């Protein structure tokens, strides 16, 4: 295998900043932002042939600790640019905190080019001079970086008209608080006279917008969002004389203007923790999305000082303690009520829905890399490691569905009372729906939507399966099978208006009983098999890592 090693002097981390708000300017300065400088190298065609590129980004780049900015690849004019990107993958790597690997595959007139492995190795900080400026090519000698100085230049890609229009619409949706951007509204429809809560900034809804801003190099809005939602976490929350546990993040917030004196007004943030939401559902996923976005912000900007701040570390621990608190449950998966995530209406997902488990697993992995390890956090780190191990086994073993697993379920014995029972959840084979055997492909599989005693939800939930791949919750074989299923059932899951939130939809009597005759969740609408284009960015991330198979 051809290997290029970049010997790089580690960069110093910036010092922490202090949080403040518009009312307490001594605590928060929205302009205090550490800017990262991406490391970019144009490699000579002498050792990299200019071919059409298919990329694959290992998940270790996203979950491992503090790299110095080497990320993905893009091709152009006989060269490749090494740049910083958000990494995704289906592989888990352990004990690789000192370097980051990127595997690149391409096609050369139909021929597969050998994978090129770019490896960043942290060396002694005192390494200087010629040794520190070389690229070592296994089997081919050294290439001096100074010979490439003329090739190191920014690559300008002109935006298409569609991209310009998309950015115009996104910027029109930006919400400002005390003159600084703090997020984007959930929906920006000028013709909607009653927007309900769609004119608020939702934590889960802002994540794809935040990643777009980060990839464009605009980190201020994401930093402000993370800090202001952290401030809201500590607010006292009361619903019908009851206060939920500390650490709960709001589902959304709104900027309101309140009068002070004559001709004087003040902007305040008004959060919603579920006490105003339709159905009064608790936003279990908000804290998980916040942790994932905090990790992405650090990886893409290099501003690791943000996650090292005392207030951020405290908020992170509060979320983790809330999720890891002991309860009555016998399983490592999180037990939640209906409507506690993206599907925030009654849709039969109460219990242990896959979406929550995949986000939980991702948040735990991100937290493990961001927590400052000391005497006060070592027990929490130990609890995270134990939970990750148990959760990954539980999901991979019991949530997985393919033809082999279906045949096993058909042969299940029921009413087994034993420590080594095969049918641990007492699942009756009659639960297998009639559509499943004809729908699932031979080479495909997926994670089922929910698992509880005597109940398996065989619906395919798109977000949960995609994040099982993103976080490496599934095994490499399972991840490949999930992508195979999406490709084989493209017409069912994508069709002309992407992307189905789940498949299939509840219809007829099943819809009436499970949704309570919800008029918004009629078959193939909204949460009941409706199309959600926002899910596409996660599909694109997966296809970027598996183009070689398509």
Our estimate of the beta-strand percent is 15-25%
What ranges have pLDDT less than 50 throughout 5 or more consecutive residues?
A: 1-21, 23-61, 65-141
Number of H/I helices: 16
Helix-strand makeup class: alpha+beta
Distance between the termini: 23 Å
- Radius of gyration, CA atoms, in whole angstroms: 25 Å
Helix percent band: 25-40%
**Biggest sheet layout:** 7 strands, mixed
- The strand count comes to 19
Q: What is the global morphology? A: globular
What does the average pLDDT come to? 77
Family: Belongs to the glycosyl hydrolase 100 family.
Pfam families: Glyco_hydro_100
Catalytic activity: Hydrolysis of terminal non-reducing beta-D-fructofuranoside residues in beta-D-fructofuranosides
Protein name: Alkaline/neutral invertase
In words, what does this structure look like?
It comes from Quercus rubra. One of its GO terms (cellular component) is mitochondrion. This is Alkaline/neutral invertase. 31% of the residues lie in helices and 17% in strands. Helix 5 packs across helix 8 (354-370) and helix 8 (354-370) runs parallel beside helix 12 (462-470). It is built from 16 helices and 19 strands. The two termini are 23 Å apart. Residues 1-21, 23-61 and 65-141 have low confidence and may be disordered. The chain has 550 residues and is α+β, with helices and mostly antiparallel strands. The strands form five sheets. Strands 1, 3, 6, 7, 8, 9 and 10 form a seven-stranded mixed sheet that branches. It is globular and about 75 Å long. Strand 6 (99-108) and strand 7 form a beta hairpin. The chain has helices at residues 60-63, 161-172, 203-215, 220-233, 284-301, 305-308, 310-324, 354-370, 378-398, 403-410, 436-439, 462-470, 476-488, 490-493, 508-515, 536-544, and strands spanning 2-8, 41-42, 52-56, 73-76, 79-82, 99-108, 111-112, 116-122, 134-137, 141-144, 174-177, 180-184, 201-202, 252-259, 265-272, 400-401, 446-452, 455-461, 502-503.
């Amino acid at each position: 295998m051809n290997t290029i090693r970049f010997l790089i002097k580690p960069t110093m981390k910036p010092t922490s900043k202090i949080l403040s708000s518009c009312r307490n300017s001594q605590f928060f300065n929205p302009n205090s932002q550490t800017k990262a400088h991406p490391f970019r190298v144009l490699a000579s065609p002498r050792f990299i042939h200019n071919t059409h590129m298919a990329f694959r980004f290992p998940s270790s780049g996203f979950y491992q600790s503090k790299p110095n900015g080497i990320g993905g690849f893009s091709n152009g004019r006989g060269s490749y640019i090494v740049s910083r990107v958000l990494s995704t993958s289906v592989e888990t790597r352990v004990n690789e905190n000192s370097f980051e690997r990127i595997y690149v595959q391409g096609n050369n007139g139909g021929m597969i080019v050998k994978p090129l492995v770019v490896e960043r190795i942290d060396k002694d900080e005192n390494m200087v001079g010629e040794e520190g400026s070389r690229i070592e090519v296994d089997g081919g000698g050294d290439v001096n970086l100074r010979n490439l100085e003329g090739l190191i230049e920014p690559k300008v890609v002109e935006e298409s008209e569609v991209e310009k229009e998309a950015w115009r619409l996104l910027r029109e949706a930006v919400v400002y608080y005390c003159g600084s951007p703090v997020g984007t509204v959930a929906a920006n429809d000028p013709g909607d006279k009653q927007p309900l809560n769609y004119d608020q900034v939702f934590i889960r809804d802002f994540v794809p917008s935040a990643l777009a801003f980060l990839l464009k190099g605009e980190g201020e809005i994401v930093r402000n969002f993370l800090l202001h939602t952290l401030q809201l976490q500590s607010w006292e929350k009361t619903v019908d004389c009851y206060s939920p546990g500390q650490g709960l993040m709001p589902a959304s917030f709104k900027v309101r203007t309140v009068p002070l004196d004559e001709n004087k007004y003040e902007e305040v943030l008004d959060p919603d923790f579920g006490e105003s939401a339709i159905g009064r559902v608790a936003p279990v996923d908000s804290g998980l999305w916040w942790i994932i976005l905090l990790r992405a912000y650090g990886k893409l900007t290099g501003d690791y000082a943000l996650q090292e701040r005392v207030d951020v570390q405290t908020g992170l621990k509060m979320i983790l303690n809330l999720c890891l608190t002991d309860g009555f449950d016998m399983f490592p998966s999180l037990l939640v009520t209906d409507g506690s995530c993206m599907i925030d209406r009654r849709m039969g997902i109460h219990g242990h829905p896959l979406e929550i488990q995949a986000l939980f697993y991702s948040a735990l992995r991100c937290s493990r890399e961001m927590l400052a390890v000391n005497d006060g956090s070592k027990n929490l780190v130990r609890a995270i490691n134990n939970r990750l191990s148990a959760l990954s086994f539980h999901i991979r073993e019991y949530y997985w569905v393919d033809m082999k697993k279906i045949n096993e379920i058909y042969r299940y014995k029921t009413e087994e009372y034993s420590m080594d029972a095969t049918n641990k959840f007492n699942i009756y084979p009659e639960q297998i729906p009639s559509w499943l055997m004809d729908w699932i492909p031979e080479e495909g599989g997926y994670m089922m939507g929910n698992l509880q005693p005597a109940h398996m939800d065989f619906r395919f939930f798109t977000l949960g399966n995609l994040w099982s791949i993103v976080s490496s919750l599934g095994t490499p074989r399972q991840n490949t099978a999930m992508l195979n299923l999406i490709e084989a059932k493209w017409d069912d899951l994508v069709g002309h208006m992407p992307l189905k939130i789940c498949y299939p939809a509840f219809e007829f009597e099943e819809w009436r009983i499970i949704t309570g005759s919800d008029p918004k969740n009629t078959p193939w609408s909204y949460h009941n098999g409706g199309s959600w284009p926002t899910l596409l960015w996660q599909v694109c991330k997966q296809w970027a890592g598996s183009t070689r198979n398509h």
